[in-house]
Amino acid sequence: MNPINNYPQPANRQVEVADILRCHIGDYLKKYNMPPEHYRVVYDILNCRTAYLGGHVEMCDQCAAERILYNSCRNRHCPKCQTITKQRWLSARQAELLPVNYFHNVFTLPHELNPLILCNKPLMLGFLFQAASQTLLDFGKNPDNGLGGQLGIIAILHTWTQTLMDHFHLHCLVLRYCTLGIPCLKIHGTASPPS
């Protein structure tokens, strides 16, 4: 028996996030409160590709060997079933990158606003996107900064910490060059080449 699970596992099987959740989610819930949407994520990850979500049987046309395949949860946070989707998304974003350096800027809302954000997500997170993008665009347009051009920005919203606690922030990739081709000044972030 595998110490992480109640069921036997192949010897070469790697530990998955679902295994860790099965082992520790009870202790975690005794110590921390979890919002309803996090419960759904945990539920989906625990049941992804198990008999609980149903499945289907594949049969070989040649030898009639059968293989049971269980359905995935399709939750965007599930590491088991969203890997291909994530890789496609990353490839598409990398194809959009220009062959220049970028700055990484993070805009974070204070944790004291979490109750308000949780009750008004579209409005409050819309404000976050507006404030961050307008700040960066105004910085780029300001000729006093030696720029006077339009910055290119990609912003990605993150809503959790690694411990699944509410933490609303934007990661912004800011093109190091303005539309005028002038190298941008280093602002609060680190320049990093596209990978």
UniProtKB/TrEMBL annotation:
InterPro entries reported for this sequence: Transposase_32, Zn_Tnp
Segments crossing the lipid bilayer: none
UniProt domain Transposase zinc-binding: residue ranges: 20-109
One of the GO BP terms on file: DNA transposition
GO molecular function: DNA binding; transposase activity
Residue ranges constituting the Transposase IS801/IS1294 domain according to the UniProt record: 152-175
Stored Pfam families: Y2_Tnp (PF04986), Zn_Tnp_IS91 (PF14319)
Matches recorded under PANTHER family: ISSOD25 TRANSPOSASE TNPA_ISSOD25, TRANSPOSASE
Protein name stated in the entry: Uncharacterized protein
Native organism taxonomy: Bacteria, Pseudomonadati, Thermodesulfobacteriota, Desulfobacteria, Desulfobacterales
